[in-house]
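[agent] plan:
  1. take the single chain provided in the ticket
  2. run structure prediction with default settings
  3. attach structure tokens to the ticket
  4. add a short note for the reviewer (M.T.)
[agent] executing step 1
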Amino acid sequence: MPITKSAKRALRQSLRKKENNLFHKNRVKKIVKQIKELSAENKKEEAKKLVSLAYKYIDKAAKHGVIKKNTASRKKSLISRITK
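[agent] step 2 finished; step 3 output follows
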């Protein structure tokens, strides 16, 4: 456990950042998984409705630095291939 005042503060900050990063990362994972499942069940129209939402979540995660720019691009490419 941290002893100094600054170390305690750093711990609080890192826990907040971890929680925020997990929120964004899980949101992206859930929406991509949903789209994959819908496309596997041949429900392409429902999957296409989620594409814009998925792009939004992926872009926000990349903007916040949770995922890298190329990872975001790769995920978006995967979604577009799946929903075609």
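[agent] step 4 note for reviewer: The chain has a mean pLDDT of 95.
[agent] ticket updated
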